[in-house]
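In this supplementary section we document a worked example of the pipeline. Step one takes a protein sequence of length 479 as its only input; no multiple sequence alignment statistics are reported here. Step two produces a three-dimensional model, which step three serialises into structure tokens for compact storage. The input and output of this example are shown verbatim.
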Amino acid sequence: MSDTPKHHTVEKIGGTSMSRVHELRETLLIGGRTGADLYNRIIVVSAFGGITDLLLEHKKSGEAGVYAAFASAEGDHGWHEALDRAETAMVKAHEAVLDHAGDIERATAFVSDRVLGARNCLIDLQRLCSYGHFRLAEHMLQIRELLSGLGEAHSAFVTSLMLQRAGVNARFVDLSGWRDEGDVSLDERIEGAMKDVDPAAEMPIVTGYAQCAEGLMREFDRGYSEVTFSRLAALTGAREAIIHKEFHLSSADPKLVGADAVRKLGRTNYDVADQLSNLGMEAIHPKAAKTLRQSGVPLRVTNAFEPDDPGTLIDDQPAESPAVEIVTGLDLFALEVFEQDMVGVKGYDATIIAILTRHDVRIVSKVSNANTITHYVDSSLKVLRRVEKDLMAKYPSAVVTSRAISMVAAVGRDLNTLSVLSRGLNALADNGLEAIGATQGPRQVDVQFIVEREVMKPAIKALHAALIESDQSAIDKAA
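The serialised model returned by step three reads:
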């Protein structure tokens, strides 16, 4: 597959956009294309919006889906109701995007077959684990992958039906390993599914989830579709990898700073993409970006509903001139460990990190001085209380505290000579806002401002006006 000429693109459509895939049929997927112009595009799809939340758990609220209900079930069958809700939602999702009654009937039969298979699998596993020799916990990762794959298989099947009805030679490519006895690697899974596919003559619609021996969810959890997408682009020698989102990659949230004030990035690099991922504004999963970077495949992020706009190109090229490219923010907790005897003693930070790792708490940033170490972490308060308890048990004479804060960051490929730290602090002060803390690393790619949660939004607006809008106005005047 690596010998395939670089004529094709690999393109991913996210879940929110997938719920409007019938609109994309007439623009992004087909538009004015005819004949051979329709092809040389491999489309990777996520599940329809909200479906993975129902199959696993709600990504933001944590509300139980099928997986969470099954994991907590103690002999009851509450997860059956959760699976029924997911099935109903899947049917509603394809009824909203398919026009032909026959296609809707086929899609509904597809959902029924997959859901019945998953239900029988869970029943058998629950029965097996009622015997003391078998432990349900040992199988939970496989269950999570099985359930997650239902969503992507459904959306890929439905999209292929929709395009076939419109006269496109679309092909459903199922990487989910449904009823597959083979235990293959991710590369083998992709190569096996794509070996007879000719992108120049057909449009493959590929599931975002791929079953493989590595177990994508073990490392990437719900970021697996971007890993599949990037590996597919690398293995097939794609000319370009494209992610279609429901918005442009812009200098800030237009709802916060105004649609007229934001700037489409247009071009940036993988370094900036990594910083955005760290701040929860994920253009692409860092491991997926690494795959594309190492394979020499450039990434483009576009607005799915503006197919004529080239979007933002992400590659390894440095900036032509220093500039703040984006201002974004994230709600966090500041976990502080103060110990008077810490100064000169090694091991405190390693112990704190070990405890945070054990509780699966993501560290976004940290600062320290002689007797205090503060980690800015992305966590729930419930988990953080457990971390505090473990830290106090380890260091009984330490003062361990946590507080809700927000981090607002100015990010760019090259921030040299811009005085972002001082200008940012002045901008906050000019708007009656105060920074609890501020940090700038020597690499000059981001500056982080720590603020109270209630002022995160006005802080983003103030920093965007001072660091992006004013600089752009100066450039425009000079031109």
